[in-house]
Amino acid sequence: MTAYEHTHTPLVSVCMTTYNHEAYLAQAIEGVLAQQTPFEVELVIGEDCSTDNTRALCESYAARYPERIRLIVSERNVGWRANYRRTFEACRGKYVAYCDGDDWWCDPQKLAQQVELLESDPTCGMCYTGVNEYEQASGQLKPDPDRHYTDFENMLLGISVPNCTAVARRELIAAYYAEIRPEEHPEWLTDDWPMWLWFAWHSKIRFLDRITAVHRRLAGSVSHGGSCRGRLARRDSFLGISLWFDARYTASRHRVRILRRRHRVSMWLLSWSDSTVGEYLTRWWHDVRECPQLLLCPDGVLFLVKKLLFRRNRKL
Known about the structure:
By secondary structure, the protein is α/β, with parallel strands linked by helices. Helix content is 45%, strand content 18%. It folds into two domains: 12-217, Spore Coat Polysaccharide Biosynthesis Protein SpsA, Chain A; 228-315, no CATH class.
């Protein structure tokens, strides 16, 4: 007999949300179906009224694998946050793994390895792995970035958990939703960042040093690139989440470090963009008024010099 009893309730549920992912979804689903595990795994797909053939593709897979795939749909688009929530709530497993419909798993041992780690350490609430990044526009595959934080203080300054590699205890995710109620924070442009911070404060997070997935970077997506202003808004939102958690759990002990991190990122983004020098100085003054200690930070001046040189070189 294996270490895992086969029952009608899966040990792991894979939470996959999808919207207009017709071109990528099959690869995401096949990566889940290819998992080699001694326990049962279900794939729960939340399809949010796509305008392409995503739903038809979901229905085709669900019909072919009725014992492994369950499809969650509605008659109207509910939005990414509500789709995440309802798809999670449909998951029945002790553990929940995440994989969006435009990412994919490249390691058939991914779930087996992560669940083995979680089963061996009851204090561990979530584990994640390394990930490669695929730039859809250029076709370039970028290696895993060399940063893998697992503690609350470092994660306040920059989350390093790729959503498509995370496996967490279902009860912990449910507790996060009950306590934090992210739907009451429309200013948060992601549900990943607050969830991982909450996990880091309430449990142990562990990193498994292997590449198990590929994160697809799409231009104009929620998490990646468009305009400089869009990127700036996302970084402000992410580090705003960190400020909120820092105030809630550590009485804002790390506030200056977070604001300095936000300031450095914003100055860097504005230094490379087509924004005017006036916009740059306006943002610099906004940051300094919020945190006067930033007057001692050289980043504002250094990036301003870079911006002026960049503008001059473009004119030559």
